[in-house]
Amino acid sequence: MGDRNARKIAELVNKEGNNVCADCGLKNPEWASYNIGVFLCTSCATGHRRLGTHISKIKSLTLDKWDDSQVESIEDLGNDAAHAKYLQHVPECYRIPKHGDPNVLVEQWIRAKYERQEFIHVDKQTYTKGTMDGTLMKKARDENKYYPRKFVLSAQDNTLKYYNKENSKEPKSTITLSELNVSLAPSKLNQENSMQLSFITEGSTRHIYVMHENPEMLITWYLAIRSAKLSRLTVAYPSVDVTELVPYLTSDFALEGWLSKTGPNERDAYRKRWFILDDRKLMYHEGPMGISYAK
Questions:
Q1: Model-level pTM?
Q2: Rounded to whole angstroms, how far apart are CA atoms 200 and 18?
Q3: What is the CATH number of the domain that holds 135?
Q4: 188: helix, coil or strand?
Q5: Cα 211 from Cα 62, distance rounded (Å)
Q6: Which sequence ranges are marked TM in the entry (predicted)?
Q7: What residue numbers bound the domain in which 101 lies?
Q8: Is residue 248 part of a domain?
Q9: CATH number for the domain including 107?
């Protein structure tokens, strides 16, 4: 019986639709959730394990023994059937993760699908409302400390504002959404739930760094900004299909790292600078956490 079930599992994982991870698309999955009915890579299987067995029951395709009921359960479902159930209403603004994307994005995608069931119950998609306000921890300009700052997002006003104090009447800064890029930055900031906000102000590209202790809230902010930007773009370009606008919402930096740079004079010494390739723009700072770059 064990050999028969092992052969059946091997057949199922090779079926079209089942031969990739249901959550990140990586080929040749090695795990499965038999009650949800999806095949998973090792990384996403870890995400399912964190959900708890009351939500997802996972097993190795080759290392664990499968009984008849478990095989029948996953045979009746599979990746395509699970997608039809759990991905009914994925908003266009949602960044669907790929293998290798930041863990916080992948884990919240998994939780959104199976734990919160956000794409079944549209009312749970709070990030699509066009407005959001709350507190994010913002990194100080000249020290590696984070301080609470109130942020207010408005798609209608085309702005993201932040205030130094909760009761401040005037914002410390007003960022125009059309000039804003947001990238998840866990490896750069050494903070899992963190983002880098880059925007143009007074002829310069400026960066600010924020984090939140709650990974769900961090991704909610990330998606709310993407949703607000998409709302603005659909108004500005009504004849353009929304799928063509999505790539312009946010983007990760193409490349970052140290290079040695010299000045314009022959005697200028080479100095290490942190370079960032952002789309078609190359900028540099004194270090990875530089805050501004003159155009």
A1: 0.87
A2: 44
A3: 2.30.29.30
A4: helix
A5: 39
A6: none
A7: 2-122
A8: no
A9: 1.10.220.150
